[in-house]
Amino acid sequence: MSGTDLSHRTDVGGLFRAHYPWLCARLRRHLGASSSVEDIAAETFAQLLESPGLTPIREPRALLTTIAHRLIYQLWRRRDLERQHLDQLQHFDQPQASSPEELLQLTQTLHGLDRTLQRLPGKVRATFLLSRIDGLTYPQIAAELGISQRSVSVYMTRSQTLCAQHSANEPLHQRSA
């Protein structure tokens, strides 16, 4: 580990100790007493830790708020997608409608895919979600995230590879259940 890496980790650790309770309180205003508050606060600091620590952070609360808001939006997008999918399933005729067991299995699959996507770095995951959930084009994603279109293409390939691996492993999980 280089001195810069250790310094960055130390800086993020100090920010965590100084601002974690504040961030949780701020998130509670948006999410209520949700169990997601602490998860989003922790993921905020994890993303900060993953980012290169080349420049000092002048306004840590503003940065933490921005990262946390992006995570909240991602959470809401996932919930909306899940809700839309379940709504679509309810509109099928009774013979085609899924049983409660099938709905549970589908929900578990979606949660498994979400856990798989959580393994991706923030910008890679955001690229995938902006493409698949929001339907943005590569140039729109590049502008939204402040990255090149080439990076968008590389990130999409990386996320699609991980999703393909998840899909290949999914039947194994279902058989063992």
From TrEMBL:
Keyword Ion transport: no
Record GO biological process: DNA-templated transcription initiation
Protein name: RNA polymerase sigma-70 factor, ECF subfamily
Gene Ontology molecular function, alphabetical: DNA binding; sigma factor activity
Lineage top rank: taxon: Bacteria
UniProt-listed InterPro entries: RNA_pol_sigma-70-like (IPR039425), RNA_pol_sigma-70_dom (IPR014284), RNA_pol_sigma70_r2 (IPR007627), RNA_pol_sigma70_r4_t2 (IPR013249), RNA_pol_sigma_r2 (IPR013325), RNA_pol_sigma_r3/r4-like (IPR013324), WH-like_DNA-bd_sf (IPR036388)
Domain RNA polymerase sigma factor 70 region 4 type: 113-158
Alphabetic keyword roster: Sigma factor, Transcription, Transcription regulation
Source organism of the structure: Pseudomonas migulae
Keyword Oxidoreductase: no
Similarity annotation: Belongs to the sigma-70 factor family. ECF subfamily.
